[in-house]
Amino acid sequence: MKIVKTFTAVRSEVAGASAALVPTMGFLHEGHVSLLELAGGLGGPVVMSLFVNPLQFDRPVDLERYPRDLDRDAGIAAAAGVDLLFAPTVEEMYPSPPRTRVRVDSVSEGMEGEHRPGHFEGVATVVAKLFAGIQPEAAVFGRKDAQQLAVVRRLTADLSFPVEIIGAPTVRAPDGLAVSSRNVFIAEDDRAAALGLSSGLFAAAEAVAAGERNGARLESLVRDRLGDVRVEYVSLADAFEAEPVETLEREAFLAVAARVGDVRLIDNIVVWPDGSSDTGVRLERPSILRRM
Questions:
Q1: CATH class belonging to 2-171
Q2: What is the pTM of this model?
Q3: Could you tell me which residues come within 8 angstroms of residue 114 by beta carbon, excluding any fewer than 6 positions away?
Q4: 58 close to 117: Cβ distance less than 8 angstroms
Q5: What CATH topology corresponds to 181-278?
Q6: 2-171 with 181-278: one CATH topology?
Q7: pLDDT by residue (tens digit) across 219-251?
Q8: pLDDT tens sequence across 135-156
Q9: What residues act catalytically?
Q10: What residues have CB less than 8 Å from 211, skipping those under 6 apart?
Q11: Burial 152-190 (b: 16+ CB within 10 A, else e)
């Protein structure tokens, strides 16, 4: 695996190849590894970007707190089959404060958009820069960030990027908690409360399989399992437009966000009107993430 730090270098390395890109902010875990392995199965070189994007943090303290370990991440990336690790500096990504921002209306306004002002503008801007600067043929994103996936799909279509967007299932710890870099901050005493998110979503998936299609009732099933957490939202939303839906009549995702202690967690499942669902895949052993 080769590590490069400039757009010029990464374009030189993948010129003429059908590269697959996996954008990350580092501190890798099994969820990232699953994306990298999926990208590796596409046949071309795998490019992983590693950049903690300041534009998508609405609170400076969260940007400072975000865990960083390039050597650790490089080792995991190499073992997962990455051919090229693109690890730019802030100066490479933003040589001067960007005057051009990418905003995806409607898709980015509810749920995470409401609770994290400017977040999706930052995501859309950095993804557009990566697509333009690297020119991959495909890009892989996790379904755990379902609204983000919808935003990326829409900006790709609206801006005519010739990039295939591929969504991959959420990876979960053996106890059901969605694997996330934020999990390292969950206190041991708060783990049980954190499991309320996945427990509620799994209950809703069972209800969908049994024939429930009413959005409010599915959301209520999730809320009933959340317990002692600070709930920000529970919402059934269209999978592609990220707009609330009252009845499950097309592909949708049921999303939840809550604060457990001082850690903000998000989770979701994808559901279909035929009663099927994607609740993610579970690891057989504890995650490589450890509490810091």
A1: alpha beta
A2: 0.94
A3: 233
A4: yes
A5: Pantoate--beta-alanine Ligase; Chain: A,domain 2 (3.30.1300)
A6: no
A7: 999 999 999 899 999 999 999 999 999 999 999
A8: 999 999 999 999 999 999 999 9
A9: 32
A10: 275
A11: bbbbbeeeebebebbbbbbbbbeebbbbbbbbebbeeeb
